[in-house]
Write a structure and sequence with these properties.
The chain is of the alpha/beta class and 628 residues long. Helix content is 59%, strand content 10%. Helix 18 links the parallel strand 7 and strand 8.
Length: 628
């Protein structure tokens, strides 16, 4: 079962208000959002913890009659009674400990899954610009690593504290009942720990911040290595990448060691204080036993209570460090949850109807840039409904940005993008994107079956519709040669398929989606001639009757397009048909000449048939409907 399939255990993070936000009151926000839904189980766990902790006090109390009544007085009846009571105490502690551990584990895992699900939902709503600034490895560490660390808030800080506090109360109660002065001597040095523990908590918090950042760096490095494994091998950079990874681990190791030192420091100081207290009690209490004021049973009961205090006190000493670590992760998650998407539905979103869907696409004086660097400068262009418009120009001219703005992956800084005369910002975002089908150089397949990847365009489609799309995109042909047909896994990012097969699956997905607007980002540029011909034929069927925008790098594929727009430095510098642009000279003619300077128009290298009508460079007839 994936996190998406798992039952929801929290309603999701509430709006970040001043009263209830991870920024203002991190622990309160965490408890209200993720622990409150499990309040019943938590109360049961706390009750069991209280029972488990109280048993320590009861056990230490039973040491007194065991020594005085059984060992020294030799009372056989008392021996049986003490033995039965001690056994009952151990059984009770075992049942309570088992029950609370199961509950704590279950609640902790449910809380972690809820946080991961809510965080992923929030991240998926963020704008594309956020992902440009934050690499996938960092997001992986936030969703997995930080939520795992936050689980410690419940499992260690909250849950364990209840058991250990109850244990301490019961043990100190026994100690005080035996001798208040002995108890005072035992804890006399505790106030001296306050300042050192405060300093250790600060060290732990700083080290934990560095450790979480270093952990993100590690995951980012691994993500880049595994995504670029082919290039690493082709350039024989395995050893270099391994050394770079080891260099990153040095910072992580240093930060984790410092954080561990801060957490371990408090228990170590408690050990010293406990030793001082034991020595004091031994000297003072020993003299009282020798003069008959106190019994051996009283001393042993007190000694047992103080010895049992030691472990829960150590655990509580680690709680401060654990909370410091968890708080760092909570703040890191807060930083993401506080980010709000800038692209959202208007207050009264407009659903695009058939008139808009079948209307012209217009860019009116559009200006846009990334991180202050302008990309589009007053762009004006029109893509007529039902026709193919090709975008050409040098790298960096703004072609891909046109696609991003049309899909509202980003919003214009000035001007407007309109569909059927309506500003895109007036539409419901999901409905707008539902009008688009995209086929790019990168097929964008997921590690699922061929069928599941085709259904990604329209999950509710029937098996017959999937098969029809697969046949139309020439997927059916190669799928029948595979072990499981359309149910064959494609592998990570489609690695089990060839480049041409991946593109045909992407086209089948777009065919099944059946959207009225088609965006093509040169989907055949990286294919061999045979694969390109098959993909090109599938694109003919896909673009027929649709408003199609094409980013073209190889001009032979868009030579027959009815409308070619030439972009340079974010503006339209020319537009027209292939013949009109060549006759005027200019940038298009220069690009064309650069690609085909060794061939004349009738002897250019053969290009596969592209949709759009007319003839390609080799003289082959093309069909109406668009272009690749």
């Amino acid at each position: 079962m994936t996190p998406h399939d798992a039952p929801r255990v929290a309603a999701g993070p509430p709006p970040a208000t001043a009263r209830n936000s991870p920024r203002a009151r991190p622990l309160r926000w965490f408890m209200a959002t993720y622990l409150r839904p499990h309040l019943g189980l938590i109360l049961v766990a706390m009750l069991l913890m209280s029972v488990e902790g109280a048993m320590l006090g009861a056990l230490s109390y039973m040491v007194r009659p065991m020594f005085d009544d059984v060992f020294l007085a030799g009372d056989g009846t008392a021996m049986v009674l003490v033995a039965v009571v001690i056994m009952a105490l151990f059984l009770t502690r075992a049942v309570a400990g088992f029950g609370q551990l199961v509950i704590v584990t279950r609640v902790g895992e449910q809380v972690k899954i809820a946080m991961q699900s809510d965080l992923l939902r929030h991240i998926l709503r963020l704008d594309s610009a956020y992902f440009h600034a934050h690499p996938p490895g960092e997001m992986l560490e936030r969703v997995r690593g930080d939520t795992e660390a936050l689980k410690m808030v419940w499992a260690t800080v909250i849950a364990s504290s209840v058991r250990d506090i109850v244990a301490l109360v019961s043990l100190f109660t026994v100690a005080v009942l035996i001798d208040p002065l002995w108890t005072l001597i035992a804890v006399a040095a505790v106030p001296a720990l306050v300042l050192p523990i405060i300093a250790l908590l600060r060290l732990t918090r700083r080290a934990s911040e560095a450790a979480r950042a270093a952990a993100s760096d590690l995951v980012i490095r691994l993500d880049e290595i595994f995504h670029g494994i082919a290039q690493i091998k082709l350039n024989t950079q395995e050893e270099l990448q391994a050394r770079r990874f080891e260099k990153v681990t040095v910072g992580y190791l240093r930060a984790m060691t410092q954080a561990a030192a801060g957490i371990a420091g408090a228990p170590a100081l408690l050990d010293i204080v406990a030793g001082i207290g034991f020595v004091g009690v031994m000297i003072y209490g020993g003299s009282q036993i020798m003069d008959g004021t106190k019994t051996v049973g009283e001393f042993m009961s007190f000694f047992t209570a103080m010895a049992l205090v030691f472990e829960p006190l150590r655990r509580l000493g680690r709680v401060g460090g654990a909370w410091a670590q968890a708080r760092v992760s909570l703040m890191r998650l807060r930083d993401i949850l506080d980010v709000q998407p800038t692209i959202s539905d208007p207050k009264e979103p407009r659903m695009p109807g058939s008139a808009e869907a079948q209307g012209d696409i217009t860019f009116e004086g559009v200006a846009f840039g990334y991180d202050g660097v302008p990309v589009l400068r007053g762009l004006n262009l029109t893509a007529r409904a039902g026709e193919t418009t090709a975008l050409v120009g040098p790298s960096g001219a703004g072609k891909s940005t046109v696609f991003n703005l049309l899909a509202r992956l980003a919003d214009v800084h000035a001007g407007a993008v309109r569909l059927g005369g309506v500003d895109l910002r007036e539409f419901d975002v999901a409905a707008l994107r539902g009008l688009l089908s995209v086929v790019s150089q990168e097929a964008g397949l997921f590690d699922e079956t061929i069928r599941a990847n085709i259904l990604f365009g329209r999950p509710e489609a029937s098996a017959a519709e999937v098969e029809a799309a697969a046949r139309a995109a020439f997927v059916w042909d190669f799928a029948q040669t595979l072990p499981a047909g359309l149910d064959t896994p494609v592998g990570p990012r489609g690695s089990n398929l060839s480049g041409g097969q991946r593109q045909r699956v992407a086209i089948a997905r777009a065919l099944l989606r059946d959207a009225p607007i088609l965006l093509l980002d040169e989907p055949t540029s990286a294919l061999d001639t045979r694969s390109e011909a098959q993909v090109q034929a599938a694109l003919e069927r896909l673009s027929r009757g649709r408003t199609t925008l094409v980013i073209a790098h190889r001009l032979s594929t868009i030579r027959s397009a009815r409308h070619i727009v030439v972009l340079d430095r974010g503006a339209v510098v020319d537009e027209g048909t292939h013949e009109e642009l060549l006759s005027r000279g200019g940038l298009y003619a220069g690009l064309y000449a650069m690609q085909f300077r060794d061939d004349d128009a009738g002897a250019a290298p053969a290009a596969p048939a592209a949709p759009g009508g007319g003839t390609d460079v080799s003289g082959h007839r093309k069909r109406e409907g668009g272009t690749a």
